[in-house]
C-alpha cells in the first residue's frame, strides 16, 4: 500500500472553473428576457449553499425549479467540461492521472457533467460520488434521484464515510459541504481551494488555503507540474507598471502585488521582505543596502531602458538577475525628440503660453526650419541612431559623438570629440546612457562651447546636465532654447511637488520624464520585461539580462534543470560535476556561460534521483545561488 494520501476533490469551482447550475443556466436561458434575473437568483442560491447559509438540499431544489433544463443542455456542458478545467488542474493532469487510484471526486453536481472529467483524469467510476439527474419522457430535467445520498443535506459526509477510506485523507474544495467532510473527521486535512472562488467561512474552517492545485500537491509531498508552487512566488511591481505585465505574470501563476509610485530606500527594504521578483521603472533606486536586505529576491525587472538606478554589481554578487526592456520605448523617445526640436526652433511653447494669456504675437523672428540645420547627437546608441534616421528624413544634417565605434546610418557623420560636435551643431540632443561617468557631461564649459542660439535637448538622464549652469545660460539669452525631460531630482509620485531653476525661463520646455511614456511603449515594455522575467523564472533563460551571463534556453522537457550561479573562479564546474556524479545524477545536457565576475551553469539531469541529492550543490565553493526546475 502506498504512503500517498487519498485526495478527495470537490468538482464545481475546484476541478473545473465553473458552478454547474450557473453554467447550465447560461445554456438554458440563452436569449430569454428573464435570463439576467434568473441567473442572479441562481448565483445567489449557489453562494448561500456553498457558504453554508442555506441547506444544500433546499438550494438544489430551488435552483432546479428556476431552470427549464433539458438533457441537451446537460449534454452540452458535459462536452465542454474537460476544456473548462481550473487552470492549475489543467496543468497537473499528468500528476492526477498518475495518482488516480487514490483520487475521489465528490460533488452535489451531476454525474453526467463530472464523468468526462473523471475519465480524462483516469478516476474510476466507483470513485465518483455525484447526483443523478432524472428526466421526463420529453428529456426535461425533473430533479435528482432522491435515493442517492448526495441529494440530501450532509450527502458528501455520508458518501465519503461509505467508502471506508484508509490512510491519510485530504479534502480539497471551495464550499462549506467540503469543510463538513473534515469537520466530520473523515479527512485529515482540508485545503480551502481558492483559485476560482474564495469563501471566507470556508477559508476559516480550513487547515490550509490553496490558490492553486500546485500548492496542494506541494503541501502533500506530491510532485506536480512545477517544482515549486508559483503562487508562492511573490512579485512586487512598483511605479504603475503596465497591466499587460501584471496579466502575464498572474496568468503564469505568480502572485503579483502592485504600487503606483516609487519607494524610497527604507520603504523598499521593508516592502521587499519575502518578495522574490521586483519590477520597477526609473524612479526606485535599488542600492547595495536594498539588495543585501532582500531576503528572497532572485530577479529585478526594470520596466524601462536605463538601469543606472540599480546597483548591478551588488545584484551580481548575490546572483540576482536584472532585466530591462532595451528597445520598447526607443521610438517614443525619438518621436518626442523630433517634436521638441521643431517646437523649440519655432518657439511654439512660449507662443502657445502667450495665447493662453490672451496675447497675439504673429512674427517670424527667431523661428527657424529644421531643413539644412545640423543636429548633433551625443550617444549614438539605440535612441541616438534612430533619431539620426528620422532627422535626416526631415532634411537635417546629422553629426554624432559616441565613446564607442558606432555604425553611421544614412549620411550621418561621426565627430571625434564632444567639443567638435558642440561647436558645429544647431541642435544638440543628448542620448548617452546613465553611467556615473556621465555626471554633468554638459556643464558650464560645454554650454559655452555651443553655438549662440543653438538649442539643447536632454532626454537621457537627469545628472547628465548641470541644471544651474543651463539656467544661467538661458537667462543670459546665449542659447535659443532647451527641452529637458529628465532631472537630477525627480518626484517619486505625481502627488509630490516639482521644482527646478529652469522653471519660468523663456523657450525652456520642461516635461516630467515622459520620453518613453506612450501607451504603445508602456504596453510593449510591460509585455517584454514580463516575458524576460518569466523566461528566467520558468526556464532559467537569461537572454537580455544586464548583469549575468546571457543563456538562451528552451523549456525543460523530460529532465530536471539545475541552475547554478557562482563567482567566476577556477574549479567551480569541475566541483559541480563531481558533486553531481557523487549524488548519482545523470547529466543529459549542460551549458556554461561566464562573464568577468559571474558563471552560470545550466545542467539538465535525468529525473531519477533521491530528493536530498541536490543539497550538496549549494555547498560547492563559489556558489551564489542554486535553483532546480522541473
Ligand atoms: N526620457 C525617457 O523617458 C527615456 C526613455 C528611454 C531611455 N532613456 C534614456 O536614454 C538614454 C539612451 O538610451 P539608449 O537606449 O539609446 O541607450 P544605448 O545604451 O543604446 O546608447 C547609449 C549610447 O551612449 C554612448 N555613450 C555613453 N556615454 C557617452 C559619452 N560620455 N559620450 C558619448 N557617448 C556616450 C554609449 O556608447 C552608447 O552608444 C539612456 O540614458 C536611457 O536611460 C530615457
Ligand atoms: O518610464 C520611466 O520611468 C522611465 C523611462 C526611461 O527613462 C527609460 O530608461 O526607459
From TrEMBL:
Keyword flag Amino-acid biosynthesis: yes
InterPro entries to which the protein is assigned, alphabetical: ACT-like_dom_sf (IPR045865), ACT_dom (IPR002912), AHAS_small-like_ACT (IPR054480), D-2-hydroxyacid_DH (IPR050857), D-isomer_2_OHA_DH_cat_dom (IPR006139), D-isomer_DH_CS (IPR029753), D-isomer_DH_CS1 (IPR029752), D-isomer_DH_NAD-bd (IPR006140)
Pathway in which the depicted protein is active: Amino-acid biosynthesis; L-serine biosynthesis; L-serine from 3-phospho-D-glycerate: step 1/3
Domain ACT: 561-630
Swiss-Prot/TrEMBL GO biological process terms: L-serine biosynthetic process
Catalysed reactions listed for this entry: (R)-2-hydroxyglutarate + NAD(+) = 2-oxoglutarate + NADH + H(+); (2R)-3-phosphoglycerate + NAD(+) = 3-phosphooxypyruvate + NADH + H(+)
Pfam families the UniProt entry points to: 2-Hacid_dh, 2-Hacid_dh_C, ACT_AHAS_ss, HAD
Known EC number: 1.1.1.399, 1.1.1.95
Superkingdom field: Bacteria
UniProt keyword list: Amino-acid biosynthesis, NAD, Oxidoreductase, Serine biosynthesis
Sample GO molecular function, one term: (S)-2-hydroxyglutarate dehydrogenase activity
Family: Belongs to the D-isomer specific 2-hydroxyacid dehydrogenase family.
Protein's job: Catalyzes the reversible oxidation of 3-phospho-D-glycerate to 3-phosphonooxypyruvate, the first step of the phosphorylated L-serine biosynthesis pathway. Also catalyzes the reversible oxidation of 2-hydroxyglutarate to 2-oxoglutarate.
Stated name of the protein: D-3-phosphoglycerate dehydrogenase
The species this protein was found in: Brevundimonas halotolerans
